[in-house]
């Protein structure tokens, strides 16, 4: 029963992400502050920035898939696993297109520009409209790792997923 509920929640997340792309996804240029590795073990390491952030572990983004959306010409959907080691911190950034985040494990703190900071646990989600500035994301625990599944709907190039401001 849990697997069915999880699959249903994931399907709802994908539908929300695709819907947001139909409302207007925006692609932004890449940033040299992001290191991208290609191949089957592709990943992106975000470089910490800001006061105190450089002393904290960084977040790792591992793209899992990127597929063109045949019913939404010019757009693709990318699914990525985002790993937060204990005490990990991601500074101010934004994403190409729209993003839906689903917490797989642990507890994460996150704040979008114009909104309050929130803490999200396993099974909880948040949505980032295209172009939204994400002020920070961090692991709420100094001792336990956390993970989230991020679903991006953006223009077709399957390029950088995170752009540091």
Plain-language structure description:
This protein is mainly beta. The chain has a single domain, classed as Jelly Rolls. The protein has one helix and 13 strands. It has one helix at 2-22, and strands spanning 34-37, 43-46, 60-68, 75-84, 89-90, 93-94, 98-105, 107-112, 118-121, 125-128, 134-139, 146-155, 163-164. It has a seven-stranded antiparallel sheet, covered by helices on one side. It has a four-stranded antiparallel sheet with strand order 5-11-8-9, with no helix packed on it. The protein is globular. The model is unreliable at 1-51 (pLDDT under 50).
Short description:
13% of the residues lie in helices and 43% in strands.
By secondary-structure content and strand pairing, the structural class works out as mainly beta
In CATH's first tier, which class applies? Mainly Beta
CATH superfamily: Jelly Rolls
Topology as H/E string?
A: HEEEEEEEEEEEEE
Number of contiguous helices: 1
User: Would you tell me the overall average pLDDT?
Assistant: 76
Number of E-type strands: 13
Major sheet details: 7 strands, antiparallel
Instruction: Find the CATH topology.
Output: Jelly Rolls
Low-confidence stretches: 1-51
Shape: globular
């Amino acid at each position: 029963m849990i697997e069915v509920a999880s699959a249903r929640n994931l399907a709802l997340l994908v539908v929300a992400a695709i819907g947001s792309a139909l409302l207007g996804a925006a692609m932004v240029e890449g940033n040299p502050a992001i290191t991208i590795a290609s191949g089957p073990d592709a990943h992106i390491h975000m470089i910490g920035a800001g006061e105190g952030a450089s002393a904290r572990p960084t977040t790792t983004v591992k793209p899992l898939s990127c597929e063109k959306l045949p019913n939404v010409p010019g757009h693709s959907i990318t699914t990525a696993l985002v790993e937060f080691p204990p005490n990990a911190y991601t500074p101010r950034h934004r994403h190409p297109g729209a993003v839906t985040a689903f917490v797989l494990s642990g507890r994460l703190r996150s704040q979008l520009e114009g909104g309050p900071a929130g803490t999200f646990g396993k099974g909880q989600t948040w949505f980032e409209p295209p172009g939204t500035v994400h002020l920070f994301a961090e692991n709420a625990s100094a001792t336990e790792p956390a993970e989230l599944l991020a679903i991006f709907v953006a223009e077709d190039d399957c390029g950088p997923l995170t752009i540091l401001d």
